[in-house]
Amino acid sequence: MVNLVKVSKQEDFGKVAAYIVSSLVQTSPRAVLGLATGGTPVDLYKELINIFNQGVISFSKVKTFNLDEYVGLPADHPASYRAFMNKHLFDHIDIDMNNTHVPNGQAANPDQECSRYDAMLSESVIDLQVLGIGHNGHIGFNEPADQLMPGTHVVDLLPETREANARYFQSVDEVPAQAITMGVGTIMKSRQILLMVRGADKAEIIHRALTGPITTLCPASLLQLHPNVTVLMDGEAGRLF
Ligand code: GLP
C-alpha cells in the first residue's frame, strides 16, 4: 500500500522524513535502517542530527545498510557514497561505525563484494528503507532494464544517470561507469519504505511510477506492490497528484 504525503513548505520536507525515521529509532533502538544518498535525503539527515542533539534518540545500537556505491572510487573520494554518509550523518551521531555498511566500491573483486554484502543483509531485515528516485525511475542504482536483479549486483550506469550525478564530480567523464547496488528483491523485503521525492523535475517520473504500469522499465513502479510505502513529496514533485 502506498501512502502519499505532500508537504507544501520546503522546511517541512526534511522534518517530516526525520519524524518518521526518528520515531522508529525511538521505539526500536536496534532498528536496521536502509539509507540512500543523493541531494534529496540531505535535509532528512540534517534533521536527524538536530533530533539527536536534542538528546531524544540514540543511534548507538542502530545498524545501517546503504543502497549503493560507485565502483572504483576510494572511500575517501568526496563523491563516494561512504564519504557522503560520513559527512552528512554518521560523523555527527553516536552510531558505531562498525554498524554502518556501504558496499566497498574498491573491492578487488566487485562480484565477491556483492555476495559479502548480501550475506550481511541476509542476517537482518531492513526495518525502514529510505529511497530517492532517479529521473528514469531508478531506485538505488537499479536502472530501467528488461530484467531486474533481486540481490546486490554490479550495474552499468546509464548515460543519463552519469549525467545527473556529474554535479558531484569535476566532469561527467569522471563519474564511474559502474556501481554496486542492492537489488530490488532486498528493497522490496524491507518492512517499511520511505520514498522521498523533491522538485518539479521529478513530478512526471513519480506520477508514472505510482500510477502507471508495474514494469522493470521503471524500477520504482515495483513499489506499488509493497505493503507499506510512504511517498513524501514536496509540492512541485507532487503536482500531478
Ligand atoms: C543516485 C542514487 C539514488 C538516488 C538518485 C537521485 O542515482 N544512486 O539512490 O535516489 O541518485 O538523486 P537525487 O536525490 O540527487 O535526485
From TrEMBL:
Tell me which Pfam families the record gives.
Glucosamine_iso
Biological process GO terms, please?
carbohydrate metabolic process; glucosamine catabolic process; N-acetylglucosamine catabolic process; N-acetylneuraminate catabolic process
Q: Which reaction does it catalyse?
A: alpha-D-glucosamine 6-phosphate + H2O = beta-D-fructose 6-phosphate + NH4(+)
Q: Which parts of the sequence belong to the Glucosamine/galactosamine-6-phosphate isomerase domain?
A: 21-225
- Regions crossing the membrane: none
List GO terms (cellular component aspect). cytoplasm
Q: What is its EC number?
A: 3.5.99.6
Which Gene3D superfamilies has this protein been placed in?
3.40.50.1360
Query: Which InterPro entries does the UniProt entry name for this protein?
Result: Glc/Gal-6P_isomerase (IPR006148), Glucosamine6P_isomerase (IPR004547), NagB/RpiA_transferase-like (IPR037171)
Task: Spell out the molecular function terms from Gene Ontology.
Answer: glucosamine-6-phosphate deaminase activity; identical protein binding
The domain of life is: Bacteria
Keywords recorded for this protein, A-Z = Carbohydrate metabolism, Hydrolase
Identify which residues the record assigns to the active site: D68 (proton acceptor), N136 (for ring-opening step), H138 (proton acceptor), E143 (for ring-opening step)
Q: In which pathway does it act?
A: Amino-sugar metabolism; N-acetylneuraminate degradation; D-fructose 6-phosphate from N-acetylneuraminate: step 5/5
Summarizing the function annotation, the protein's role is:
Catalyzes the reversible isomerization-deamination of glucosamine 6-phosphate (GlcN6P) to form fructose 6-phosphate (Fru6P) and ammonium ion.
Task: Give the protein family.
Answer: Belongs to the glucosamine/galactosamine-6-phosphate isomerase family. NagB subfamily.
Supply the name of the protein. Glucosamine-6-phosphate deaminase
Tell me what gene encodes this: nagB
